[in-house]
C-alpha cells in the first residue's frame, strides 16, 4: 500500500508591517507606505468598481466585479454598458494559470501565470528599483489591480505630482482620506497638460483606493469608484469557476 503524495502547501500571507495608520492625519510618506501593503490587511475580498469615462465615442461605463481569496485565487468580471448586451470579459487566476473569456467574441484563453525576473523584489535594492510582488495577482494595469495593489500607483503617479489633502469622506460605507494630485507625470500624451489633476480616496482601514477621478481643468474625464465592498467573508471555490459554452473558441 502506497502512501498518498503530500498535499502542496500554499504560501502563508505575512502580516502587514503596519496594521493601522499611526494617525488620522499621516504624513504622505507614511500614507504611501501604508497603501503599499493594502492587500495584506484582509484574507478575502469582494468588490464592485464602477468606472465612468468620457471618450471620443461619448460617455462610457464599465463595471468590475472582483472576488479575491488569499493566496492566489482571484476573479474579475468586467461588464461594459447594459448587462443584457453580453459585452463582458472574465479573468480568473489560481496562481498557476490564467483563464479568460470574452463573451461578445465567444473566445477563451488559458495560459501560465507570468513570472517576474529573479531578484526584482530583493530587499537590498533601493525602494524605487524593487517591484512589488502581490500575494494574489490581478489583471495587470487594470482598475482592479490599481485599487487593490496601489503601491505602483503611489510610486509612479502620486509620487510624481503635487499632492495636497482634501479632507475625508465616506465611500461605500467606509471612511476615506481624500487627496488631490496636480499634474502627475503620465505616458498618455493627451492628458500631459498642466491643468490635469487627480482626486483620490484612500480607505483608512486597509489602504486600498476607493476613488480615482481624473480632471482636465474643470472637466471630469474619468470617475472610478467602489460601489460595494466586503472583507473577510467566506468565498467558496465555485466563485472562481469559469463556465463557458460549448461553442466558445479557445485561442491558446
Write up this protein:
- The protein has one domain: outer membrane lipoprotein receptor (LolB), chain A, CATH 2.50.20.
- It is globular, with a radius of gyration of 19 Å.
- The protein contains 3 helices and 12 strands; from the N terminus they run αββββββααββββββ.
- A hairpin with a 7-residue loop joins β3 and β4.
- A 12-stranded mixed beta sheet has the order 7-8-9-10-11-1-2-3-4-5-6-12.
- It is 8% helix and 40% strand.
- The protein starts with 27 loop residues before the first helix and ends with a strand.
- The chain is mostly beta strands.
**Count the helices. How many?**
3
CATH class descriptor name: Mainly Beta
The number of strands is 12
Total domain modules = 1
Indicate the structural class. Answer: mainly beta
pLDDT average, as an integer? 89
Distance between the termini: 40 Å
Kindly provide the radius of gyration, computed on alpha-carbon positions and rounded to a whole number of angstroms: 19 Å
- Content of β-strand: 35-45%
Flag low-confidence runs: 4-10
Note the overall shape: globular
How are the strands of the largest sheet arranged?
Answer: 7-8-9-10-11-1-2-3-4-5-6-12
Main sheet characteristics: 12 strands, mixed
CATH H-level homologous superfamily name: Lipoprotein localisation LolA/LolB/LppX
CATH topology, by name, is outer membrane lipoprotein receptor (LolB), chain A
CATH architecture: Clam
Helix-strand sequence = HEEEEEEHHEEEEEE
- The helicity comes to under 10%
Amino acid at each position: 500500500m502506497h502512501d498518498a503524495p503530500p498535499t502542496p502547501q500554499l504560501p502563508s500571507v505575512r502580516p502587514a508591517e503596519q496594521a493601522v495608520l499611526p494617525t488620522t492625519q499621516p504624513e504622505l510618506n507614511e500614507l504611501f507606505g501604508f497603501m503599499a501593503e493594502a492587500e495584506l490587511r484582509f484574507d478575502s475580498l469582494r468588490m464592485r468598481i464602477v468606472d465612468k469615462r468620457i471618450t471620443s465615442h461619448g460617455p462610457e461605463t464599465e463595471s468590475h466585479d472582483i472576488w479575491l481569496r488569499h493566496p492566489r485565487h482571484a476573479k474579475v468580471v468586467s461588464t461594459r454598458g447594459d448587462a443584457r448586451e453580453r459585452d463582458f470579459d472574465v479573468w480568473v487566476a489560481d496562481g498557476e494559470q490564467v483563464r479568460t473569456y470574452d463573451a461578445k467574441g465567444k473566445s477563451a484563453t488559458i495560459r501560465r501565470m507570468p513570472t517576474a525576473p529573479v531578484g526584482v523584489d530583493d530587499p537590498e535594492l533601493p525602494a524605487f528599483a524593487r517591484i512589488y510582488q502581490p500575494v494574489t495577482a490581478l489583471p495587470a494595469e487594470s482598475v482592479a489591480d490599481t485599487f487593490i495593489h496601489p503601491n505602483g500607483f503611489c510610486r509612479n503617479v502620486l509620487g510624481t505630482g503635487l499632492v495636497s489633502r482634501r479632507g475625508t469622506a465616506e465611500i461605500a460605507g467606509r471612511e476615506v482620506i481624500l487627496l488631490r494630485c496636480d499634474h502627475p507625470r503620465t505616458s498618455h500624451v493627451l492628458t500631459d497638460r498642466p491643468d490635469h489633476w487627480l482626486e483620490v480616496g484612500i480607505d483608512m482601514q486597509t489602504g486600498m483606493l476607493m476613488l480615482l477621478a481624473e480632471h482636465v481643468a474643470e472637466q471630469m474625464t474619468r470617475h472610478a469608484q467602489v460601489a460595494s465592498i466586503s472583507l473577510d467573508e467566506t468565498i467558496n471555490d465555485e466563485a472562481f469557476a469559469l463556465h463557458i459554452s460549448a461553442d466558445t473558441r479557445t485561442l491558446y
